[in-house]
From TrEMBL:
Function as written in the Swiss-Prot or TrEMBL entry: Catalyzes the condensation of pantoate with beta-alanine in an ATP-dependent reaction via a pantoyl-adenylate intermediate.
Binding site for ATP: 32-39, 149-152, 178, 186-189
Protein name stated in the entry: Pantothenate synthetase
Matching NCBIfam families: cyt_tran_rel, panC
Lineage, opening ranks: Bacteria, Pseudomonadati, Pseudomonadota, Alphaproteobacteria, Rhodobacterales
Classification via InterPro entries: Cyt_trans-like, Pantoate_ligase, Pantoate_ligase_C, Rossmann-like_a/b/a_fold
Species this protein is from: Phaeobacter gallaeciensis
Binding site for (R)-pantoate: 63, 155
Keyword rRNA-binding part of the UniProt annotation: no
Amino acid sequence: MTVPILRRLADLRAQHATWIRAGEVVGVVPTMGALHAGHLSLVEAAKATCDRVIVTIFVNPRQFNSPEDLAKYPRTERADAEKLAPFDVDVVYVPDPDQIYPDGYATSVSVEGITDVLEGTFRPGHFDGVATVVAKLFLQTGAHKAFFGEKDFQQLMVVRRMARDLDIPIEVVGCPTVREDSGLAMSSRNMRLSVEALEKAGRLYPIMTGCADRLAAGETFDQIEPEARAALQAAGFGEVEYLDLRCADTLAPLQTPTRPARLLVAAWLDGVRLIDNIAVPQLSD
Ligand code: AMP
């Protein structure tokens, strides 16, 4: 089965109009391509609850912090189309760049507060780029539901906040992180890791779950942090940009998981920046 690829907004809108007339529920899965099983789990979730599914593929220049990172980002449209074929999606929207940022484009969407920490500290402007393109994709696709991975936990929060604040009538659905057998969260950036580096990367998840176990047993974050950082270093990681326990609703720092909590990490390995996060079981007060 071939997947129907649309590159122009007018074509997407024409298709969308027929679905809306028929009273169908439309879902969207925004991606930057280089699809892996994590992305495909979002497609499955969309297929399960929507009559029509649009997958978008757009490598959004505005959310990259350096031209090198943008240039190195994998672009694999043909392979992506093959991976999507078995899922029977209705449209793959691969907008030409001018369909997202036409000449003279001058608008940015910026979410305050929750973007000041974690990724926001280390990737200035990143979430403005994300919020802007996602707002556009929500409006362009007119979807009723959008599917995002918990892998990018802060991004999921930013997108939810943005849609609520702008009254975009869409339900943002968060889906669990899909992992390799080692526990490594699947990511398009993993493609840039050598076999040896992938093995080292597999240490990240057990270190994180080890931290979560200790926090759930009553140790404070300050007590476990030095050993966790040392374990990452021993595993071969370079700079750890952040390793934090945060409130899952506000991203405020926590010492103990007395409310829904998330352990979040960003660390470099062989020139690749990896991020991950897990839920930490809640302690009663
Ligand atoms: P990206 O193409 O990296 O921008 O990701 C597109 C969507 O896929 C985002 O909602 C990500 O959170 C989600 N995603 C990426 N990796 C995973 C994963 N390992 N498990 C679940 N969702 C993922």
